[in-house]
Specification:
With about 525 residues, this protein is of the alpha/beta class. It has three domains: about 190 residues, Class I glutamine amidotransferase (GATase) domain (Rossmann fold, 3-Layer(aba) Sandwich), CATH 3.40.50.880; about 190 residues, HUPs (Rossmann fold), CATH 3.40.50.620; about 100 residues, GMP Synthetase, Chain A, domain 3 (2-Layer Sandwich). About 30% of the residues lie in helices and about 25% in strands. The strands form five sheets. The chain has a nine-stranded mixed sheet, sandwiched between helices. Strands 14-13-12-15-18 form a five-stranded parallel sheet, sandwiched between helices. Strands 19, 20, 21 and 22 form a four-stranded mixed sheet that branches. Helix 6 crosses helix 12. The protein is globular, with a radius of gyration of 27 Å. Bound molecules: xanthosine-5'-monophosphate (XMP). Xanthosine-5'-monophosphate binds next to loops.
Protein backbone atom coordinates (compact mmCIF):
# COMPACT_ATOMS: atom_id res chain seq x y z
CA UNK A 1 0.00 0.00 0.00
CA UNK A 2 1.38 3.41 -0.88
CA UNK A 3 1.79 5.58 2.17
CA UNK A 4 1.05 9.29 1.96
CA UNK A 5 3.52 11.91 3.09
CA UNK A 6 2.92 12.73 6.74
CA UNK A 7 3.18 15.85 8.80
CA UNK A 8 3.13 15.75 12.59
CA UNK A 9 1.52 18.47 14.69
CA UNK A 10 2.72 18.41 18.28
CA UNK A 11 -0.08 19.84 20.38
CA UNK A 12 0.74 22.03 23.36
CA UNK A 13 -2.93 22.62 24.13
CA UNK A 14 -3.93 25.63 22.04
CA UNK A 15 -7.64 26.14 21.42
CA UNK A 16 -6.97 26.39 17.71
CA UNK A 17 -4.66 23.44 17.07
CA UNK A 18 -7.38 21.72 15.03
CA UNK A 19 -7.38 24.67 12.67
CA UNK A 20 -3.76 23.97 11.76
CA UNK A 21 -4.83 20.52 10.64
CA UNK A 22 -7.71 22.01 8.66
CA UNK A 23 -5.40 24.42 6.82
CA UNK A 24 -3.03 21.57 5.96
CA UNK A 25 -5.73 19.19 4.80
CA UNK A 26 -6.97 21.97 2.51
CA UNK A 27 -3.53 21.80 0.93
CA UNK A 28 -3.93 18.04 0.43
CA UNK A 29 -1.35 17.37 3.10
CA UNK A 30 -1.95 14.50 5.50
CA UNK A 31 -1.29 15.42 9.12
CA UNK A 32 -2.00 14.12 12.59
CA UNK A 33 -2.27 15.97 15.90
CA UNK A 34 -0.65 14.33 18.93
CA UNK A 35 -0.29 15.77 22.45
CA UNK A 36 3.26 16.75 23.39
CA UNK A 37 3.38 14.27 26.26
CA UNK A 38 2.81 11.37 23.84
CA UNK A 39 5.45 12.46 21.39
CA UNK A 40 8.56 10.73 22.66
CA UNK A 41 11.76 10.29 20.67
CA UNK A 42 10.61 6.77 19.76
CA UNK A 43 7.19 8.03 18.65
CA UNK A 44 8.83 10.62 16.47
CA UNK A 45 11.09 8.06 14.84
CA UNK A 46 8.20 5.69 14.13
CA UNK A 47 5.92 8.41 12.82
CA UNK A 48 8.64 9.48 10.37
CA UNK A 49 7.18 12.90 9.57
CA UNK A 50 8.31 14.90 6.58
CA UNK A 51 7.82 18.07 8.66
CA UNK A 52 6.71 18.99 12.17
CA UNK A 53 4.59 21.86 13.48
CA UNK A 54 4.65 22.87 17.15
CA UNK A 55 1.29 24.33 18.17
CA UNK A 56 0.52 27.16 20.54
CA UNK A 57 -0.46 26.48 24.12
CA UNK A 58 -1.55 28.12 27.38
CA UNK A 59 1.49 27.28 29.52
CA UNK A 60 4.60 29.43 29.99
CA UNK A 61 7.98 28.07 28.91
CA UNK A 62 9.45 30.04 31.83
CA UNK A 63 7.67 27.71 34.27
CA UNK A 64 9.82 24.83 35.50
CA UNK A 65 8.55 21.56 34.07
CA UNK A 66 6.55 23.19 31.27
CA UNK A 67 6.05 21.18 28.05
CA UNK A 68 8.87 20.71 25.55
CA UNK A 69 9.36 19.12 22.15
CA UNK A 70 11.43 15.92 22.21
CA UNK A 71 15.13 16.66 21.90
CA UNK A 72 15.62 14.36 18.90
CA UNK A 73 13.39 16.68 16.86
CA UNK A 74 16.25 19.12 16.46
CA UNK A 75 18.56 16.58 14.87
CA UNK A 76 16.05 14.75 12.66
CA UNK A 77 16.76 16.97 9.69
CA UNK A 78 13.10 17.77 8.94
CA UNK A 79 11.62 21.28 8.66
CA UNK A 80 10.00 22.51 11.88
CA UNK A 81 7.54 25.37 12.28
CA UNK A 82 6.84 26.69 15.78
CA UNK A 83 3.74 28.74 16.49
CA UNK A 84 3.36 30.97 19.56
CA UNK A 85 4.17 28.58 22.44
CA UNK A 86 5.82 26.44 19.76
CA UNK A 87 8.10 29.34 18.89
CA UNK A 88 8.91 29.94 22.52
CA UNK A 89 9.80 26.35 23.31
CA UNK A 90 11.89 26.18 20.12
CA UNK A 91 13.86 29.24 21.21
CA UNK A 92 14.28 28.00 24.76
CA UNK A 93 15.38 24.53 23.70
CA UNK A 94 17.85 25.87 21.13
CA UNK A 95 19.53 28.42 23.40
CA UNK A 96 17.41 31.60 23.16
CA UNK A 97 15.44 33.33 25.91
CA UNK A 98 11.76 33.89 26.68
CA UNK A 99 10.38 36.33 29.23
CA UNK A 100 7.01 36.64 30.90
CA UNK A 101 4.74 39.67 30.84
CA UNK A 102 6.38 43.06 31.44
CA UNK A 103 3.66 44.76 29.45
CA UNK A 104 4.48 43.01 26.21
CA UNK A 105 1.49 40.71 26.07
CA UNK A 106 -0.43 40.99 22.82
CA UNK A 107 -3.94 39.77 22.18
CA UNK A 108 -5.81 40.23 18.97
CA UNK A 109 -4.95 41.98 15.76
CA UNK A 110 -1.42 43.21 15.10
CA UNK A 111 0.59 44.20 12.05
CA UNK A 112 3.89 42.63 11.10
CA UNK A 113 6.43 44.42 8.95
CA UNK A 114 9.33 42.69 7.21
CA UNK A 115 13.02 43.13 7.88
CA UNK A 116 15.54 43.37 5.05
CA UNK A 117 15.91 39.62 4.64
CA UNK A 118 13.50 37.54 2.51
CA UNK A 119 12.21 34.17 3.65
CA UNK A 120 10.74 31.37 1.53
CA UNK A 121 7.81 30.68 3.84
CA UNK A 122 6.80 34.33 3.42
CA UNK A 123 6.39 34.21 -0.36
CA UNK A 124 3.39 36.34 -1.24
CA UNK A 125 3.60 38.30 2.03
CA UNK A 126 4.29 42.00 2.47
CA UNK A 127 3.24 42.97 -1.04
CA UNK A 128 1.61 46.04 0.51
CA UNK A 129 4.26 46.59 3.13
CA UNK A 130 2.72 44.94 6.18
CA UNK A 131 0.44 42.02 7.02
CA UNK A 132 -2.29 41.62 9.57
CA UNK A 133 -1.76 38.73 11.99
CA UNK A 134 -3.51 37.39 15.07
CA UNK A 135 -1.54 37.45 18.30
CA UNK A 136 -2.39 35.77 21.56
CA UNK A 137 0.59 35.65 23.87
CA UNK A 138 1.60 36.70 27.37
CA UNK A 139 5.26 35.65 27.12
CA UNK A 140 7.61 36.80 24.42
CA UNK A 141 10.95 35.84 23.00
CA UNK A 142 13.61 38.22 24.36
CA UNK A 143 16.63 36.64 22.70
CA UNK A 144 16.61 34.42 19.65
CA UNK A 145 18.60 31.20 19.59
CA UNK A 146 22.02 31.03 17.88
CA UNK A 147 21.68 30.57 14.13
CA UNK A 148 18.28 32.37 13.95
CA UNK A 149 17.53 35.66 12.22
CA UNK A 150 14.54 37.97 12.40
CA UNK A 151 12.31 38.30 9.33
CA UNK A 152 9.32 40.20 10.69
CA UNK A 153 8.49 42.39 13.66
CA UNK A 154 5.34 43.80 15.26
CA UNK A 155 5.19 46.68 17.76
CA UNK A 156 5.02 44.27 20.71
CA UNK A 157 6.87 41.33 19.22
CA UNK A 158 10.31 42.24 17.91
CA UNK A 159 10.76 38.56 17.04
CA UNK A 160 7.40 37.99 15.34
CA UNK A 161 8.96 35.91 12.57
CA UNK A 162 12.29 34.16 13.04
CA UNK A 163 14.09 31.39 11.24
CA UNK A 164 17.24 29.37 11.01
CA UNK A 165 17.15 28.76 7.27
CA UNK A 166 20.19 26.51 7.36
CA UNK A 167 18.43 24.01 9.63
CA UNK A 168 14.94 24.68 8.24
CA UNK A 169 13.56 25.87 11.58
CA UNK A 170 10.84 28.52 11.40
CA UNK A 171 9.12 30.20 14.31
CA UNK A 172 6.32 32.76 14.46
CA UNK A 173 4.75 34.50 17.42
CA UNK A 174 1.29 34.83 15.86
CA UNK A 175 -1.31 32.27 14.77
CA UNK A 176 -1.28 31.77 10.98
CA UNK A 177 -4.08 29.15 11.23
CA UNK A 178 -6.83 31.57 12.22
CA UNK A 179 -9.04 33.49 9.88
CA UNK A 180 -7.76 36.80 11.28
CA UNK A 181 -4.33 36.16 9.78
CA UNK A 182 -5.45 36.57 6.17
CA UNK A 183 -2.18 35.38 4.62
CA UNK A 184 -1.78 32.52 7.11
CA UNK A 185 -2.86 29.82 4.67
CA UNK A 186 -0.18 31.06 2.27
CA UNK A 187 2.46 30.69 4.97
CA UNK A 188 1.43 27.08 5.57
CA UNK A 189 1.45 26.44 1.84
CA UNK A 190 4.97 27.82 1.51
CA UNK A 191 6.10 25.75 4.48
CA UNK A 192 4.76 22.43 3.18
CA UNK A 193 6.10 23.03 -0.34
CA UNK A 194 9.49 23.79 1.14
CA UNK A 195 9.25 20.52 3.08
CA UNK A 196 8.62 18.67 -0.18
CA UNK A 197 4.94 17.82 0.24
CA UNK A 198 3.39 17.15 -3.14
CA UNK A 199 -0.25 17.33 -2.00
CA UNK A 200 -0.80 13.57 -2.22
CA UNK A 201 -3.74 13.51 0.22
CA UNK A 202 -6.73 13.26 -2.10
CA UNK A 203 -10.09 11.61 -1.59
CA UNK A 204 -9.57 9.22 -4.51
CA UNK A 205 -6.29 8.16 -2.92
CA UNK A 206 -7.83 7.96 0.52
CA UNK A 207 -10.64 5.76 -0.76
CA UNK A 208 -8.17 3.24 -2.19
CA UNK A 209 -6.06 3.20 0.94
CA UNK A 210 -9.04 2.95 3.26
CA UNK A 211 -10.44 -0.01 1.33
CA UNK A 212 -7.08 -1.71 1.44
CA UNK A 213 -6.81 -1.08 5.18
CA UNK A 214 -10.29 -2.46 5.89
CA UNK A 215 -9.45 -5.63 3.95
CA UNK A 216 -6.22 -6.05 5.88
CA UNK A 217 -7.92 -5.52 9.23
CA UNK A 218 -11.01 -7.64 8.62
CA UNK A 219 -9.76 -10.37 6.30
CA UNK A 220 -12.65 -12.72 5.52
CA UNK A 221 -14.45 -12.06 8.81
CA UNK A 222 -17.88 -10.49 9.11
CA UNK A 223 -18.66 -6.90 10.05
CA UNK A 224 -21.85 -5.41 11.51
CA UNK A 225 -22.66 -1.76 10.92
CA UNK A 226 -25.38 0.24 12.62
CA UNK A 227 -26.88 2.35 9.86
CA UNK A 228 -28.87 5.43 10.79
CA UNK A 229 -29.07 7.06 7.37
CA UNK A 230 -26.96 9.98 8.63
CA UNK A 231 -23.85 11.08 6.73
CA UNK A 232 -21.24 9.32 8.85
CA UNK A 233 -22.80 5.89 9.08
CA UNK A 234 -23.86 6.01 5.42
CA UNK A 235 -20.36 6.81 4.19
CA UNK A 236 -18.78 4.24 6.52
CA UNK A 237 -21.21 1.56 5.30
CA UNK A 238 -20.63 2.24 1.60
CA UNK A 239 -16.87 2.28 2.05
CA UNK A 240 -16.80 -0.98 4.00
CA UNK A 241 -19.21 -2.55 1.52
CA UNK A 242 -16.82 -1.65 -1.27
CA UNK A 243 -14.03 -3.34 0.65
CA UNK A 244 -15.70 -6.56 1.77
CA UNK A 245 -19.06 -6.82 -0.03
CA UNK A 246 -21.50 -9.27 1.53
CA UNK A 247 -19.35 -9.81 4.59
CA UNK A 248 -20.86 -6.54 5.78
CA UNK A 249 -24.36 -6.58 7.24
CA UNK A 250 -26.01 -3.31 8.16
CA UNK A 251 -28.62 -3.05 10.88
CA UNK A 252 -31.12 -0.24 10.56
CA UNK A 253 -33.40 0.16 13.57
CA UNK A 254 -36.71 1.93 13.01
CA UNK A 255 -37.69 3.10 16.48
CA UNK A 256 -40.89 4.68 15.24
CA UNK A 257 -39.45 8.15 15.78
CA UNK A 258 -38.13 8.77 12.29
CA UNK A 259 -39.21 11.43 9.85
CA UNK A 260 -41.66 10.94 7.00
CA UNK A 261 -40.46 8.39 4.45
CA UNK A 262 -37.08 8.04 6.17
CA UNK A 263 -37.10 4.29 6.78
CA UNK A 264 -38.18 3.56 3.19
CA UNK A 265 -35.53 5.91 1.84
CA UNK A 266 -32.73 4.20 3.74
CA UNK A 267 -33.86 0.72 2.76
CA UNK A 268 -34.24 1.67 -0.91
CA UNK A 269 -30.86 3.34 -1.05
CA UNK A 270 -28.77 0.73 0.71
CA UNK A 271 -30.57 -2.51 -0.08
CA UNK A 272 -31.82 -1.82 -3.59
CA UNK A 273 -29.29 0.66 -4.93
CA UNK A 274 -26.11 -0.50 -3.19
CA UNK A 275 -27.24 -4.10 -2.90
CA UNK A 276 -26.11 -4.40 0.70
CA UNK A 277 -27.05 -7.04 3.24
CA UNK A 278 -29.42 -4.96 5.32
CA UNK A 279 -31.56 -5.87 8.28
CA UNK A 280 -34.33 -3.29 8.57
CA UNK A 281 -35.77 -3.82 12.01
CA UNK A 282 -39.19 -2.29 12.57
CA UNK A 283 -39.27 -2.06 16.35
CA UNK A 284 -41.59 0.93 16.54
CA UNK A 285 -44.16 -0.90 18.69
CA UNK A 286 -41.50 -1.78 21.23
CA UNK A 287 -40.13 1.77 21.50
CA UNK A 288 -43.45 3.59 21.41
CA UNK A 289 -44.87 1.14 23.94
CA UNK A 290 -42.00 1.83 26.32
CA UNK A 291 -42.44 5.57 25.86
CA UNK A 292 -46.13 5.58 26.66
CA UNK A 293 -46.86 8.14 29.36
CA UNK A 294 -43.22 9.28 29.48
CA UNK A 295 -42.87 13.04 29.25
CA UNK A 296 -39.56 13.77 30.99
CA UNK A 297 -36.91 14.47 28.31
CA UNK A 298 -34.10 12.63 30.06
CA UNK A 299 -36.27 9.59 30.77
CA UNK A 300 -37.17 9.58 27.06
CA UNK A 301 -33.49 9.62 26.10
CA UNK A 302 -32.54 6.90 28.57
CA UNK A 303 -35.46 4.68 27.57
CA UNK A 304 -34.63 4.98 23.88
CA UNK A 305 -30.86 4.61 24.40
CA UNK A 306 -31.21 1.44 26.46
CA UNK A 307 -33.76 -0.16 24.14
CA UNK A 308 -31.63 0.71 21.14
CA UNK A 309 -28.70 -1.22 22.53
CA UNK A 310 -30.88 -4.22 23.39
CA UNK A 311 -32.46 -4.24 19.95
CA UNK A 312 -29.20 -3.76 18.11
CA UNK A 313 -27.66 -6.57 20.06
CA UNK A 314 -30.60 -8.87 19.34
CA UNK A 315 -30.22 -8.43 15.57
CA UNK A 316 -26.44 -8.42 15.62
CA UNK A 317 -26.46 -11.75 17.45
CA UNK A 318 -28.26 -13.26 14.48
CA UNK A 319 -25.35 -12.50 12.21
CA UNK A 320 -23.29 -15.59 12.57
CA UNK A 321 -19.56 -15.23 12.96
CA UNK A 322 -19.51 -11.44 13.18
CA UNK A 323 -16.26 -10.25 14.73
CA UNK A 324 -16.28 -6.54 13.97
CA UNK A 325 -18.53 -3.58 14.60
CA UNK A 326 -18.23 -0.61 12.26
CA UNK A 327 -18.58 2.91 13.60
CA UNK A 328 -18.56 6.29 11.91
CA UNK A 329 -16.15 7.86 14.40
CA UNK A 330 -14.59 11.07 13.04
CA UNK A 331 -11.22 12.69 13.65
CA UNK A 332 -12.44 15.43 16.00
CA UNK A 333 -13.82 12.66 18.23
CA UNK A 334 -10.47 10.93 18.57
CA UNK A 335 -8.00 13.79 18.82
CA UNK A 336 -6.49 13.49 22.23
CA UNK A 337 -6.81 16.88 23.77
CA UNK A 338 -4.28 18.29 26.17
CA UNK A 339 -5.77 19.41 29.45
CA UNK A 340 -3.79 21.67 31.69
CA UNK A 341 -6.18 21.65 34.61
CA UNK A 342 -4.54 19.06 36.82
CA UNK A 343 -1.23 18.54 35.11
CA UNK A 344 -0.86 17.02 31.68
CA UNK A 345 -3.79 14.63 31.49
CA UNK A 346 -5.31 13.25 28.35
CA UNK A 347 -8.98 12.98 27.58
CA UNK A 348 -10.37 10.88 24.79
CA UNK A 349 -13.98 11.40 23.88
CA UNK A 350 -15.81 8.16 23.49
CA UNK A 351 -19.40 9.17 22.94
CA UNK A 352 -19.49 7.34 19.61
CA UNK A 353 -18.82 4.14 21.39
CA UNK A 354 -22.53 3.64 22.03
CA UNK A 355 -23.05 2.32 25.51
CA UNK A 356 -19.92 0.17 25.42
CA UNK A 357 -21.53 -2.12 22.83
CA UNK A 358 -18.32 -3.46 21.29
CA UNK A 359 -16.94 -4.59 24.68
CA UNK A 360 -20.29 -6.03 25.71
CA UNK A 361 -20.58 -8.05 22.52
CA UNK A 362 -16.90 -8.95 22.29
CA UNK A 363 -16.58 -7.17 18.95
CA UNK A 364 -13.56 -5.39 17.54
CA UNK A 365 -14.01 -1.95 16.02
CA UNK A 366 -13.68 -0.88 12.40
CA UNK A 367 -13.57 2.90 12.16
CA UNK A 368 -12.70 3.87 8.61
CA UNK A 369 -13.46 7.59 9.09
CA UNK A 370 -11.23 8.10 12.12
CA UNK A 371 -8.80 10.24 10.17
CA UNK A 372 -11.38 12.54 8.60
CA UNK A 373 -13.04 15.83 9.41
CA UNK A 374 -16.76 16.18 8.70
CA UNK A 375 -16.36 17.97 5.39
CA UNK A 376 -13.85 15.32 4.32
CA UNK A 377 -16.43 12.63 5.09
CA UNK A 378 -18.79 14.45 2.76
CA UNK A 379 -16.09 14.62 0.07
CA UNK A 380 -15.50 10.89 0.49
CA UNK A 381 -19.25 10.29 0.21
CA UNK A 382 -19.26 12.17 -3.09
CA UNK A 383 -16.24 10.16 -4.22
CA UNK A 384 -18.21 6.98 -3.42
CA UNK A 385 -21.19 8.21 -5.42
CA UNK A 386 -23.59 8.73 -2.51
CA UNK A 387 -26.42 11.02 -3.61
CA UNK A 388 -26.29 14.64 -2.46
CA UNK A 389 -29.39 14.08 -0.36
CA UNK A 390 -27.50 11.71 1.96
CA UNK A 391 -24.30 13.72 2.01
CA UNK A 392 -25.70 17.13 2.82
CA UNK A 393 -28.20 16.00 5.42
CA UNK A 394 -28.87 18.05 8.53
CA UNK A 395 -27.97 16.25 11.74
CA UNK A 396 -30.77 14.21 13.27
CA UNK A 397 -30.67 13.23 16.95
CA UNK A 398 -30.59 9.61 18.06
CA UNK A 399 -33.88 9.90 20.02
CA UNK A 400 -35.47 11.28 16.86
CA UNK A 401 -38.88 12.88 16.98
CA UNK A 402 -39.27 11.96 20.66
CA UNK A 403 -37.45 15.13 21.67
CA UNK A 404 -39.42 17.23 19.17
CA UNK A 405 -42.66 16.24 20.78
CA UNK A 406 -42.50 17.91 24.22
CA UNK A 407 -44.60 16.15 26.84
CA UNK A 408 -46.20 12.77 26.29
CA UNK A 409 -45.65 11.09 22.91
CA UNK A 410 -48.64 9.70 21.04
CA UNK A 411 -48.84 8.12 17.59
CA UNK A 412 -51.32 10.81 16.62
CA UNK A 413 -48.93 13.63 17.52
CA UNK A 414 -46.04 11.87 15.78
CA UNK A 415 -48.09 11.51 12.59
CA UNK A 416 -48.99 15.21 12.61
CA UNK A 417 -45.39 16.17 13.35
CA UNK A 418 -44.09 14.06 10.44
CA UNK A 419 -46.41 15.78 7.98
CA UNK A 420 -45.63 19.29 9.24
CA UNK A 421 -41.90 18.61 9.19
CA UNK A 422 -42.08 17.30 5.62
CA UNK A 423 -43.87 20.46 4.42
CA UNK A 424 -41.38 22.69 6.25
CA UNK A 425 -38.31 20.93 4.81
CA UNK A 426 -39.93 20.96 1.37
CA UNK A 427 -40.35 24.72 1.68
CA UNK A 428 -36.72 25.15 2.74
CA UNK A 429 -35.48 23.07 -0.18
CA UNK A 430 -37.74 24.86 -2.67
CA UNK A 431 -36.35 28.19 -1.56
CA UNK A 432 -32.78 26.89 -1.91
CA UNK A 433 -32.02 27.42 1.78
CA UNK A 434 -31.34 23.85 2.94
CA UNK A 435 -27.54 24.01 2.68
CA UNK A 436 -27.35 27.39 4.38
CA UNK A 437 -29.10 26.05 7.45
CA UNK A 438 -27.34 23.82 9.92
CA UNK A 439 -30.47 22.14 11.22
CA UNK A 440 -34.19 22.70 10.67
CA UNK A 441 -37.21 20.88 12.05
CA UNK A 442 -40.68 21.23 13.47
CA UNK A 443 -41.61 20.63 17.11
CA UNK A 444 -45.23 19.85 17.91
CA UNK A 445 -46.31 21.62 21.08
CA UNK A 446 -48.34 20.02 23.86
CA UNK A 447 -51.04 22.62 23.55
CA UNK A 448 -54.21 23.01 21.49
CA UNK A 449 -55.35 26.40 20.35
CA UNK A 450 -58.54 27.76 18.87
CA UNK A 451 -58.68 28.74 15.22
CA UNK A 452 -61.18 29.40 12.50
CA UNK A 453 -61.06 27.71 9.12
CA UNK A 454 -63.79 28.34 6.57
CA UNK A 455 -66.87 28.82 8.69
CA UNK A 456 -65.84 26.44 11.38
CA UNK A 457 -64.03 26.59 14.68
CA UNK A 458 -60.89 24.47 15.00
CA UNK A 459 -59.19 23.28 18.15
CA UNK A 460 -55.86 21.82 17.07
CA UNK A 461 -52.18 21.64 17.95
CA UNK A 462 -49.73 24.49 17.67
CA UNK A 463 -46.28 23.82 16.29
CA UNK A 464 -42.95 25.63 16.34
CA UNK A 465 -40.55 25.88 13.44
CA UNK A 466 -36.86 25.79 14.27
CA UNK A 467 -33.94 26.61 11.97
CA UNK A 468 -30.44 27.42 13.13
CA UNK A 469 -27.04 28.23 11.78
CA UNK A 470 -24.11 26.72 13.64
CA UNK A 471 -20.62 25.37 13.14
CA UNK A 472 -20.64 22.45 15.52
CA UNK A 473 -23.97 22.50 17.36
CA UNK A 474 -22.33 23.93 20.48
CA UNK A 475 -23.64 27.42 19.82
CA UNK A 476 -26.33 28.43 17.35
CA UNK A 477 -28.24 31.37 15.94
CA UNK A 478 -31.77 31.29 14.61
CA UNK A 479 -31.98 31.53 10.84
CA UNK A 480 -33.28 34.93 9.60
CA UNK A 481 -36.06 33.75 7.28
CA UNK A 482 -37.92 36.44 5.38
CA UNK A 483 -41.47 37.27 6.50
CA UNK A 484 -42.70 36.04 3.12
CA UNK A 485 -41.09 32.66 3.65
CA UNK A 486 -42.50 32.32 7.15
CA UNK A 487 -45.97 33.42 6.07
CA UNK A 488 -46.04 31.06 3.10
CA UNK A 489 -44.78 28.15 5.19
CA UNK A 490 -47.32 28.73 7.97
CA UNK A 491 -50.13 28.84 5.42
CA UNK A 492 -48.97 25.64 3.76
CA UNK A 493 -48.65 23.76 7.06
CA UNK A 494 -52.09 24.83 8.27
CA UNK A 495 -53.69 24.04 4.92
CA UNK A 496 -51.91 20.77 4.26
CA UNK A 497 -51.50 19.25 7.72
CA UNK A 498 -54.61 18.10 9.46
CA UNK A 499 -54.27 18.65 13.18
CA UNK A 500 -52.29 21.91 13.22
CA UNK A 501 -53.94 25.32 13.26
CA UNK A 502 -51.16 27.56 14.56
CA UNK A 503 -47.51 27.98 13.55
CA UNK A 504 -44.83 29.86 15.48
CA UNK A 505 -41.17 30.52 14.71
CA UNK A 506 -38.60 29.93 17.44
CA UNK A 507 -36.04 32.75 17.49
CA UNK A 508 -34.03 31.60 20.51
CA UNK A 509 -30.29 31.35 20.10
CA UNK A 510 -28.09 28.80 21.85
CA UNK A 511 -27.19 29.67 24.51
CA UNK A 512 -29.47 30.38 26.31
CA UNK A 513 -31.75 27.94 24.47
CA UNK A 514 -30.77 24.57 23.05
CA UNK A 515 -31.34 23.57 19.46
CA UNK A 516 -33.82 20.80 20.24
CA UNK A 517 -36.86 21.57 22.36
CA UNK A 518 -36.04 18.86 24.85
P1 LIG B 1 -29.02 20.72 21.64
O1 LIG B 1 -30.50 20.51 21.66
O2 LIG B 1 -28.33 20.12 22.81
O3 LIG B 1 -28.49 19.92 20.38
O4 LIG B 1 -28.64 22.15 21.41
C1 LIG B 1 -27.21 20.01 19.81
C2 LIG B 1 -27.11 18.98 18.70
O5 LIG B 1 -27.18 17.66 19.25
C3 LIG B 1 -28.31 16.96 18.75
N1 LIG B 1 -28.88 16.23 19.88
C4 LIG B 1 -28.76 14.91 20.06
N2 LIG B 1 -28.17 13.98 19.30
N3 LIG B 1 -28.81 12.33 20.87
C5 LIG B 1 -28.22 12.67 19.69
O6 LIG B 1 -27.72 11.79 18.99
C6 LIG B 1 -29.42 13.22 21.69
O7 LIG B 1 -29.97 12.86 22.73
C7 LIG B 1 -29.39 14.58 21.26
N4 LIG B 1 -29.87 15.72 21.78
C8 LIG B 1 -29.55 16.73 20.93
C9 LIG B 1 -29.24 18.01 18.20
O8 LIG B 1 -30.08 17.50 17.18
C10 LIG B 1 -28.27 19.05 17.70
O9 LIG B 1 -27.77 18.68 16.43
Amino acid sequence: MTQHQRLLIIDFGSQVTQLIARRLRELNVYCEIHPYNKVTDAFLRDFAPRAVILSGGPDSVTRAGSPRAPESLWTMGVPVLGICYGQQTMMTQLGGKVESGHGTAEFGRAFVTPTEERLAILNGWFEDGREQVWMSHGDHVSQIAPGFKVYGTSPNAPFAITADVERNFYAVQFHPEVHHTPKGARLYENFVRLAGFTGDWTMAGYREQAIQKIREQVGDKKVICGLSGGVDSSVAAVLIHEAIGDNLTCVFVDHGLLRKGEAEEVVTMFRDHYNMQLIAADESDLFLGALEGVSDPEVKRKTIGKLFIDVFQKYANRIEGAEFLAQGTLYPDVIESVSFSGGPSVTIKSHHNVGGLPEKMGLKLVEPLRELFKDEVRALGRELGLPAKFIGRHPFPGPGLAIRCPGAITREKLAILREADAVYIDQIRKHGLYDEIWQAFVAILPVRTVGVMGDGRTYDYACALRAVTSVDGMTADYYPFSHEFLGETATRIINEVKGINRVTYDITSKPPGTIEWE
